[in-house]
Amino acid sequence: MQRAQEKQERVTQIEQRQSVSRLSLDTVLNEQDRRDLPFEVKGALQLDKVFLLDNRIETGQVGFHVLVPLETESGVLMINFGWIKANAYRDQLPQIQLNQDTYSFYGISAVPTHNPMVTETATASAPWPRVIQSIDLTLMSAFLDHPLLPVVMQLAPEHQMGFVRNWQPVVMAPEKHYAYALQWFGLALACVIIYFVALRKRRSKTHD
């Protein structure tokens, strides 16, 4: 029930934030909560330093998210250009084709979180594009040998560049949490009923 309430608050925040005009990168960086903010930025892509986020699923197919650093006046920003299908063989990475002459980008801000269940397999000696298991900005900064800004732009679906972009900031809707809560309440009630039925039968048997 608590998770459902948290998700509902998040959905409301997303709707409110994405209804405003695009902000500047500096405005986003100055926010206490940097998530879900529409913003735009200009800069030069580092197309020789592409990251491929592994094991991303789109319509039942396995692929990668393509992340490219962008040099801006405020620092280096990581942009997620969306999903691209993986090749049949793991040692054959997909070809990444992006326009070097594009300098203006817009999308939604995201703040990566650390997942302790994910073990990173990338190393500093791996070739580019470099396959990573999670968006760890500290590790990616080390690979790039310069710091990254603490937000990631999820490129807007209507932007001319990039790949498949079906962003889902809330993976599980509040209604599903309520449904799971109802199932657990039902199981708890069933356990209580079974307990009292068993207790009654035991007392009846003892009396007999």
From TrEMBL:
It is a multi-pass membrane protein. This is SURF1-like protein. The chain crosses the membrane at residues 177-198. It holds the Pfam family SURF1. Belongs to the SURF1 family. It comes from Aliiglaciecola litoralis. InterPro entries: Surf1/Shy1, Surf1/Surf4. Its main location: membrane. It is found in: Cell membrane; Membrane.
